[in-house]
Model the fold of this input.
Amino acid sequence: MIFLSNLVNGISLGSIYAIIALGYTMVYGIAKMLNFAHGDVIMVGAYIIFCGAQYWGLPAPVAVLLAMLVCTVLGMTIEKLAYKPLRQATGLAVLITAIGMSYLLQNTALLIWGANPKVFPSPFSTDALHLFGGELVIKPETLITILANVVIMIALSLFISRTKMGKAMRCVSEDRGAAELMGINVNRTISVTFAIGSALAAIAGLLLCSSYPMLQPTTGSMPGIKAFTAAVFGGIGSIPGAMLGGVLLGIIEILGKAYISTELGDAIVFAVLIVVLLVRPTGLLGKPVREKV
Amino acid sequence: MKKITALVLALCLVLGIGAAMAEDLTLTIGHIGPQTGPAAVYGLATYRGAKIAADEITAADNGITVVLLNEDDTHDAEKAKNAYNSIMEQGAQMIVGTTTTAPCIAVGALAYEERVFMLTPSASSTDVTADKDNVYQVCFTDPNQGSASAAVIKEKALGTKIAVIYNNADAYSTGIYQTFVQKADELGLEIVSTTTFTDETTDFSVQVADAKNNGADLVFLPIYYTPASQILIAAKSQNYAPTFFGVDGMDGILTLEGFDTSLAEGVMLLTPFVADAKDEMTVKFVEEYKKLYDEVPNQFAADAYDCVYALVEAAKKAGVTSDAAAEDICDAMIAAMQEIQVTGLTGTMTWSANGEVDKVPTAMVIKDGAYVGLGN
Done:
């Protein structure tokens, strides 16, 4: 029963990583860049929801929609200002810019909201599920996060495989130059990718802070890094991979802490990543890329 | 003792301040503490407490004026050094601070080099005073807090099976943990679960589950109030309701924005200051604090209030003058601190040569969203 309880906690944490990883993997898969500011867009989303619900008196769904809107605009602005001018630059330059953007967002949040931590009120007020005579407790947040993961994963997969914009995204992902020659607007496609990724960040912010209700300007950074790890673990660029990687990572982290040592929890997570990458360099569900000579 | 008195007299002569003692004294004291950032609650409280003391002394019209300078260190060791440099440039003669442990260790090292006297209201690690003759404490040291907690738990029979959750990336938390375990062992308290976390930890379910599964009826939390709030939330979601016992870092949990304070109901903590105490001094201080800042002062405010009184007492004893430079009065202040006895909000205090304070701790419990003495 203790094991089952730990497993549930692991899935709960993992599903949070998964939903953040979806944003990472989507942007990477299409724009071929690591958006390290993703975790911080999540933090901004969470703050907007917090302010909406606590200060402006908005009902929770409206606050979430507002946060999605703000994050979408923010994501597209970041892309336009910071990443678009570097479209022809090396990958490293874009990567460093993304890290800089991450710090910019954190410190701007520090200026606006101050560094006093806030406890995020969970909008999911239903009671937790008590199974086996109260031995096993499942929080409503966990169920909602898993459900959100599945819905988003299916929706994204359908969007990318069935719609015209999705087709354009796949083309841009495969060969940006050729896509442009075929008349695909590469800039717009990447912009839309960022918009979707950032809207997802707002939802991830809601779910992250509902499950772990401590909101401060650095809230997004550690979960962001863990989620990035999850995305790599599952095979970066692969949408089901992000989901699988996230959930597995959460389970490994919790079981590692519970059965090996709380002190080594994070070390275990990253050790597993190293082992997986040594055995399968493309991650669990990543497609092997053959170098053409 | 004779040697010290002789030293003080000699210093007075050297500095030529013996004659100036009867004259008016303007003392410039610099306060450094986090007023933004994760530990802002503490720094704001220490500044406000010190400010009330400074204004009170100045208003008392006995020839002493206290000028209180203030800098924010955001609970960051590097920023604290900048804050220290800036406050010394503004002409501080001595320091009240810094409020939190890690910045205090950093600033203490600088102040030791430059010979500036520091009295911290609340940085409680022994590392704060170790190897530095110029740093004194008004709060208990961490070892003192850990062993005192174990003693209170044993004496009042608060729990038989104890779990400890501490931050192993934090000197403050680890320090208290170590002495707690030592004392608990001595007293025959059974520790059934020990788990850790770091500043980056978001999920506390494992730590809480471990305490629960090992049947702990008391969870000792030698940590700050922010992670403590997460542990209380995790415990609730796991239907786990042991007695939670914290130390001075727990102070602040009731004012955390958005936190459901009903979760903190019944939480116990060790603190030398009780805002609902009925003695004249406490009542007056609490009234003044409420009037100015619209909240009930916590023990950090009380510690800082006592700090300013202790500094003034020591400065009088050391014969400090209005225009004396910080480095010239440091040694005289050190000698004076060991001789004075100050009765403040947090008890009657004397200091030993290693900078540690001697006073009596009190256990408190949170009832209806306020602290009350455990005895009541």
In short: The radius of gyration of chain B is 21 Å. The first strand of chain B starts at residue 25 and ends at 33. Residues 16-21 of chain B have pLDDT under 50 and may be disordered.
